[in-house]
Design brief:
The protein is of the alpha/beta class and 454 residues long. The protein contains 15 helices and 19 strands. Strand 15, helix 14 and strand 16 form a beta-alpha-beta unit. Helix 7 runs parallel beside helix 8, helix 8 packs parallel to helix 9 and helix 13 runs parallel beside helix 14.
Length: 454
């Protein structure tokens, strides 16, 4: 009869090892499963060190009020530092009250889209005196009264996110302007006026990260040039029209330390980019083409852009030197035919010798990219480690030997021969996986540690 050596069994592992393993599990899994395995694990789940970072963002199962009360009642949350709850309708005012009393030392709190927290519930947050990061975005019942109360009592807040809170108005911005240590602010989809934005820009001298846009009763295009922010290092703006290009350029010129610019759903041409030598990350569409400023920016050797995320279509006609870029993400317009991607990939993107990460719109369900064009792109990529593609049908490529991370939708099974160092794989569509692909994958990619199937 075979006997197990007690020194080699899992029960012989010390508590410190088990606690380290438990940190990789979700909060819901710890409460619902781990604590019910045995008495030892039940006692281990009550350790303070295990509840420093609590995250409840499970989208596949809705937590009941009893689950939340179990979490806050049977675990010692006095040492909790970060708490994140997202999309949980069962998170109510009473649970928030229990949280504030049991975990008063929280530094970072995120309550995103918790629709059943009322305006009264948010008033409890004023008791979290050590709070520095607060995200209460997509809160349908949040009003100006709660924002004013929070800003009056929590002067140490450094990061505040209140986007998609449609009940907020000018009074909220006036209250936010009184936070002396605020450095990161996200305000979007609010009923505010130009006067409130201008007042806020005059008072928040320490602000370095700003996300703004989509205001109901105000056109941001006319107000953007008058904002007096001067220390911004990151700027994220939504819904700017092409005639706001010069006004946006004035704001960018005023902030000489800008390193990240993100334009979502905007149509400006890009004159703002000229002479921005400190810029490291740019995310914007090229839906209307671009002017000479972009060409001059990329062709100058003294400008070193690390990350570029662009959306292009058939109107873009350019050839650019991307020698400094390390992360490149290209999204194709849904109307772009196959020959557009051929021209762009084969002739337009040159000198990618420093590229580490390449993403070719993994969610683009159009025609696959021609493998000959893709080979020309890889020919200049000498240090590529991460690749994210929607569809490239080719047999193999010597340029893929350094790739360690991949996200793929359509892929030739034979191409796995060229990926000996692959460590992480994400299949973006389970419909495209077959037995032959899995066989080639298991045969040639022996060092894979992480596998995700969507």
């Amino acid at each position: 009869m075979y006997t197990v050596d007690p020194s080699r069994s899992l029960s012989a592992l010390p508590d410190e090892i088990w606690l380290t393993i438990f940190t990789y599990f979700s909060t819901t899994f710890l409460c619902r499963s781990i604590r019910k395995v045995c008495r030892r694990w039940y006692l281990l789940t009550h350790e303070k060190t295990l509840w420093k970072n609590v995250s409840i963002i499970d989208s596949d199962c809705e937590n009941s009020m009893r689950s939340f009360l179990t979490l806050f009642s049977f675990n010692d949350l006095s040492g909790a530092e970060c708490l994140s709850v997202e999309g949980q309708s069962s998170f109510t005012d009473y649970i928030l009250y229990k949280l504030v009393n049991d975990a008063s030392n929280i530094h970072s709190l995120s309550l995103i889209h918790c629709e059943n927290i009322s305006d009264k519930g948010f008033l409890y947050l004023s008791k979290l005196t050590q709070l520095k990061n607060l995200n209460i975005s997509m809160s349908l019942q949040l009003t100006d009264k709660s924002i004013a109360h929070i800003c009056d009592h929590l002067l140490g807040i450094q990061r505040l996110c209140v986007y998609d809170c449609r009940n907020l108005s000018d009074d909220s911005l006036f209250a936010i302007s009184n936070l002396p240590n605020l450095s990161h602010l996200e305000i979007e989809n609010m009923d505010v006026s130009y006067t409130a934005l201008f007042y806020m820009s005059r008072n928040l001298a320490n602000l370095t990260h700003l996300r703004m846009g989509c205001y109901s009763y105000m056109n941001l295009d006319g107000a953007i040039a008058s904002l007096n922010f001067t220390n911004l290092s990151s700027l994220d703006v939504t819904n700017l029209n092409d005639y706001a290009d010069e006004d946006f350029a004035i704001l960018v010129k005023r902030n000489k330390n800008l390193k990240t610019i993100k334009l979502r759903e905007s149509a400006i041409l890009g004159t703002f980019i000229y002479k921005q030598k400190n810029l490291k990350k740019l995310i914007m569409p090229f839906s209307n083409g671009f002017n000479k400023a972009f060409y001059d920016f990329f062709c100058k050797r003294d400008v070193e852009l690390d990350e570029l995320d662009i959306t292009i279509n058939q109107h873009c006609n350019f050839s650019i030197n991307f020698s400094s870029i390390k992360r490149l993400s290209i999204s194709f317009d849904t109307e772009s035919p196959l020959n557009i991607s051929k021209n762009l990939l084969a002739y337009k993107f040159l000198y990618l010798e420093n590229l580490v990460e390449l993403c070719l719109d993994p969610y683009w369900r159009g025609e696959t990219i021609d493998h000959r064009c893709f080979e020309k792109v890889l020919a200049t990529c000498k240090n590529l480690e991460k690749l994210c593609i929607s569809g490239v049908k080719f047999s193999s490529s010597k340029r893929l030997k350094l790739v360690k991370n991949m996200s793929i939708r359509t892929f030739s099974p034979r191409a796995f021969k060229a990926l000996p160092n692959l460590c992480s794989v994400e299949f973006l569509s389970i419909d495209n996986i077959n037995i032959r692909m899995l066989h080639m994958f298991c045969k040639h990619c022996k060092y894979v540690r992480d596998l995700y199937v969507i």
